[in-house]
Amino acid sequence: MRVLHVEGGAHLYGGALQLLYLLEGLSARGVDNHLACRRGCELATRAAPFAQVREMPMGGDLDVLMIGRLYRVIRQTRPDLVHLHSRIGADLMGGIAARLAGVPVLHTRRVDNPEPRLLVATKYRLHDRVIAISEGIERVLLAEGLPAAKLRLVRSAVPAERYAQPCRVQLISQRLGLPEDALLVGVVAQLIERKGHGLLLEALPRLLAEQPRLQVLFFGQGPLAAALEQQIGAAGLRGRVHLTGFRDDLPELLPCLALLVHPALMEGLGVSLLQAAAAGVPIIASRVGGIPEAVEDGVTGMLTPPGDVVALEQAIRALLSDPQLRERLGRAGAERVRRDFCVEAMVEGNLWVYRELLGRLRHE
Question: In what residue span(s) does the Glycosyltransferase subfamily 4-like N-terminal domain sit (predicted)?
Answer without folding.
Answer: 14-162
